[in-house]
Design a protein that fits this description.
Layout lengths: L19 H11 L7 E7 L5 E5 L11 H12 L12 E5 L2 E5 L17 H11 L2 E2 L2 E4 L34 E7 L8 E3 L5 E9 L6 E5 L6 E9 L5 E6 L3 H15 L3 E2 L3 E4 L9 H4 L12 E4 L5 H11 L2 H11 L8 H14 L7 E2 L11 E2 L1 H11 L5 H5 L24 E8 L2 E9 L5 E9 L8 H14 L1
Parallel strand pairs: 4-6, 5-13, 6-14, 9-11
Antiparallel strand pairs: 1-2, 1-20, 3-4, 3-15, 7-8, 7-12, 10-11, 16-17, 18-19, 19-20
Length: 476
């Protein structure tokens, strides 16, 4: 296949395509991206023949397309269809202290209407055994204490997209506050559960003004500053805040539930973390097993639903925390649950898929890291490889569907690809991504990866990519 010599000033490289009409349509579509955008696009047919190739071997920041690799590794490594009882939270009594431990499940809930995987069930188990406890300890030592991925922007830590990762996860590791307007010129009313101290720097403004609230917090601090404006007469706004220490938050909520069940807590809220060591890195660990201290007998444990349900949620809505937990879960198979062990499992999968090592680098499991890199061609190869695996169809069903659900619910709606595109989205600082499968006008199934980087002022390249995909689908 002929490769064209690219003019230096082009926004997107000209496509190499068998059909020159498609080539021209793709070039026109990609040229509508913001000036300076770098776009990579590879599309192959059902036989693996490349229909379009634009910068196929250049490396891009993939944003949440990283979840393609993480969730595929979960399907390849874990028994995702079985009951996930091994990942459920447990409670133990150590003398008078009560220890709440996590094993990496993402779905433990403290919600009042919880019906499954509920913290309240563990609180009732303790209340049935004793009416007085000392310390309430949150234990997340099942994974090393690696709460944020390398390369993640620090400003994301305050919100739900960048909340800390822990083997003991509760309510997606976020806290919520409600902000209600008062009279014009007055500070709004802010209501939370008391976990964070709140500095109320907001203001109620005249009705008809758009509400614009911000939440800021210095990492490691329990002081949350709510600023901005809320319109008089406007509906109550919900502010979602990330948690720095999920094990502490879980223990804090658990202590409240114990008190609600008539258990007197005489001690403090404490945590147990496991600092990363060379034993958590497969490159330095060798054959030395990771040692864990002996534990007291389990008083009660929870059995969450199968992991397949959570994998579907993770890809459909692009849930960062859950993806990071899956990276660590695959790292427990023969490893310690470290990020390094999870990365090793992903690399092993990509080796089996025949993907060259230079074509990718992943620092995390969710795509929040700016250190991640992958080529469009490598992504397409993995996508095609998944469909040759016994779990391939189940994994593909976790992807959002254009115009139908997840992060693609509004995208491609009313177009010829409505209900006919199955792909993972991605959006990060100056990065957009979309990779997956599409059904063409003639009913053929193509595999594609579109990665865009370097948009000025964090503009979006999604319209340009969508136009290119629509043109390719229409011509085939």
């Amino acid at each position: 296949m002929m490769r064209l010599l690219l003019p230096v000033l082009l926004v997107a490289a000209p496509a190499v395509a068998a059909d020159r009409a498609v080539d021209r349509a793709v070039d026109r579509a990609l040229a509508t991206a913001p000036v300076g955008t770098r776009i990579g696009l590879v599309v192959v047919d059902e036989n693996g023949r490349e229909i379009v190739s634009v910068r196929g071997d250049e490396r891009f920041v993939p944003a949440s397309n990283t979840k393609i690799f993480t969730t595929a590794a979960a399907f390849a490594t874990l028994d995702v269809a079985a009951s996930d009882g091994g990942g459920g939270a447990t409670v133990r009594l150590e003398g008078r202290d009560v220890v709440l431990s996590g094993r990496g499940d993402a779905r433990l809930s403290s919600a009042a209407g919880c019906t499954i995987d509920c913290l309240a069930d563990l609180a009732r188990a303790v209340a049935a055994k004793t009416r007085v406890v000392g310390d309430v300890i949150g234990d997340d030592t099942f994974f090393p204490d690696e709460r944020w991925p390398l390369g993640m922007s620090w400003n994301n830590q305050v919100g739900r997209y960048g909340t800390a990762i822990s083997a003991l996860t509760i309510d997606d590791n976020v806290a919520t506050l409600t902000v209600a307007p008062r009279g014009v010129g007055e500070t709004p009313t802010i209501t939370g559960d008391g976990y964070y101290r709140v500095e109320n720097a907001g203001s109620t403004v005249a009705g008809g003004t758009k509400t614009a609230l911000t939440a800021t917090r210095v990492p490691g601090s329990d002081l949350l500053r709510i600023a901005g404006t809320i319109a008089a007469g406007a509906a109550t706004e919900v502010v979602t805040v990330g948690i720095d220490d999920p094990a502490h938050r879980a223990a804090w909520l658990f202590a409240a539930m114990l008190r609600a069940n008539g258990v007197r807590v005489t001690g403090t809220i404490a945590v147990r973390h496991r600092a990363p060591t060379p034993a958590d890195d497969p490159a330095t660990r060798g054959a030395t097993p990771v040692a864990r201290p002996p534990l007291a007998p389990v008083l009660a444990t929870l059995a969450p639903p199968p992991l397949a349900e959570d994998l579907r949620l993770t890809n459909k809505v692009s849930q960062n925390l859950h993806a990071e937990l899956f990276l660590r879960r695959v790292g427990t198979v023969g490893g310690s649950g470290s990020v390094a062990d999870g990365r090793a499992a992903v690399i092993a999968m990509l080796d089996r898929a025949g993907i060259e090592r230079w074509a990718y680098d992943f620092a995390d499991g969710s795509g929040m890291s700016n250190y991640n890199r992958v080529t469009p061609r490598a992504t397409v190869r993995l996508l095609r490889w998944t469909q040759a695996q016994p779990w391939g169809a189940a994994w593909r069903a976790t992807l959002p569907v254009g115009g139908i659900d997840g992060t693609l619910a509004r995208r491609f709606r009313g177009t010829p690809l409505d209900g006919k595109l199955f792909a993972k989205t991605g959006s990060l600082n100056a990065a957009n991504a979309l990779s997956g499968f599409l059904v063409t006008a003639k009913g053929r199934t193509f595999t594609f990866s579109a990665l865009a980087n370097d948009m000025p002022d964090d503009a979006s390249a999604t319209d340009a990519v969508d136009k290119a995909l629509l043109a390719i689908a229409a011509a085939n």
